[in-house]
Amino acid sequence: MVRHIYLCENSAEGIFSAIYRAYEEGYPHEYNEVVIDTEGRNMELFCEYHTVVTNFEHAVKVARTIRRKISEEAYDFIHRCCGSYEAQKADAIYRFVQEGLRMGRAVMSHLTAPYMQTLFAIERNFTNESHFFIEILRFEELENGILFGRINPKSEVLPYLADHFADRFAGEQWVIADTVHRTVLLHKANYKTYHPRGMKSKFEWRVNGFDRMGQAGVHKIGMGVLIGLEEWRTDVTMMAYHLRYLQKHYWKTKYSVNFPRMRPSENGGFQPNVVMNDRELAQLTFAMRIFDHDVDISYSTRESAEIRNHMATLGVTTMSAESKTEPGGYFSYPQTLEQFHVSDERKAVEVERDLKKLGREPVWKDWDQSFDFKR
Fold first, then answer.
1. What is the tens place of the pLDDT at every residue in 1-34?
2. What element of type H or E holds 309?
3. Which residue from 33, 3, 2 is spatially nearest to 19, judged by alpha carbons?
4. pLDDT one-digit tens code per residue, 97-153
């Protein structure tokens, strides 16, 4: 009988998506294999290859099944294995899930099974590497007081360093960068200072909001850094890492970025901790355009008409106009509770006129529901 080989992304979500696909297509498990898709892979004769696109909805279903029908311990074990650099993990995890659905939590004691021996060796190496970097990692203090460390692991151990360093440096602002897998770990020491109450105070809910939008198939996702809270170079670098992650996982979605500069608050409110001058704003805009040639770069009405006009020909692709900054401002205009004063007070038609003078073509709407219709 023909063997079916499911090629997947090297991630927990990719492996879980391949397992879902294998179950969905219903071929006998003994003729299936889940393999990490790599460049230059040798193709075997008499095999049918299935390239699996990572599907987060399917991955979540597999993860939920492991937790409910096997155990939480099994899920944690498998998740550590998924972070390993070792390629044989994918099919061993597939075999583990098969037997786990049959045996339940007893599968963790099935020590003589080849797939369990493989996974135990993988998990042991992963844990040892995590402990290694906990022991040797050293931080350097940047000019802005942030502690910065680098690691270059074979496996994706970075998330497993979080608890240790969050406890060791609880009151510090620190960043750890994984230079191999291009991921970063950021300590959120000051987050509660800026968002003490309400839904914004829930860090995980906020940061995972982009994933929820991507999973929902949102047409365009906008992300930004408010310049003025912390050192802006660090904040924007973290946003660039996040943008790359989103583009990799939700590639059908368009993206835009912005970096609005905090303006002095009205009525003696919050004032900027860090000030970015016009030259630095232009430098950041150019750097973002070099980093990503396609992402939309947006300037808000916080910036002056002069700066927005100049930057419209130097990398900026979208702009707001006639913005309201008071609560409920679009519903109950005029309003007296303005949070801060906008700098560009031109009407939308005036912004359009000035852009046309610069040789730009203003586009008011670049989407339509009909584009998403499946034919």
1. 789 999 999 999 999 999 999 999 999 999 999 9
2. helix 305-311
3. 33
4. 999 999 999 999 998 999 999 999 999 999 999 999 999 999 999 877 888 999 999
Q: What is the DSSP letter of 367?
A: -
This prediction has a pTM of 0.63
Q: Which two tokens stand for residue 195?
A: 């968002």
| Secondary structure (3-state) at 330 | coil
What is the C-alpha separation between 222 and 295, in angstroms, rounded?
A: 10
Number of C-alpha atoms within 13 angstroms, CB side, residue 305?
14
Mention every residue, 6+ apart, whose C-beta is less than 8 A from residue 210.
221, 223, 242, 246
CB distance 149 to 186 below 8 Å: no
Farthest CA pair distance, the chain: 76
**pLDDT, the chain, mean:** 86
Cα separation of 200 and 197, whole Å? Answer: 7
64-99 burial, b for 16+ CB within 10 Å, e for fewer? ebbeeebbeebbebbbbbbbbbbeebbbbbbbbbbb
Summarize the confidence of residues 83-89 as an average pLDDT: 94
* Beta strand pairing call for 183-186 and 174-178: antiparallel
- Whole-number Cα distances in Å, 46 to 1, 23, 24, 201: 9, 21, 22, 55
- Please tell me the distance from the alpha carbon of residue 32 to that of residue 35, in angstroms, as a whole number: 10
Q: Cα(178)–Cα(62) distance, rounded to whole angstroms?
A: 28
With tokens 């991630």, the residue in question is 11
Edge-first strand listing for the sheet containing 318-319: 220-224, 254-258, 296-299, 318-319
**pLDDT for residue 371 is more than 70:** no
> Rounded to an integer, what distance in angstroms lies between the CA atom of residue 79 and that of residue 63?
9
C-alpha span between 56 and 54 (Å, rounded): 6
Quick one: tokens of 315? 């990398």
**SS3 sequence, 173-232?**
CEEEEECCCCEEEECCCCHHHHCCCCHHHCHHHHHCHHHHHHHCCCCEEEEECCECCCCH
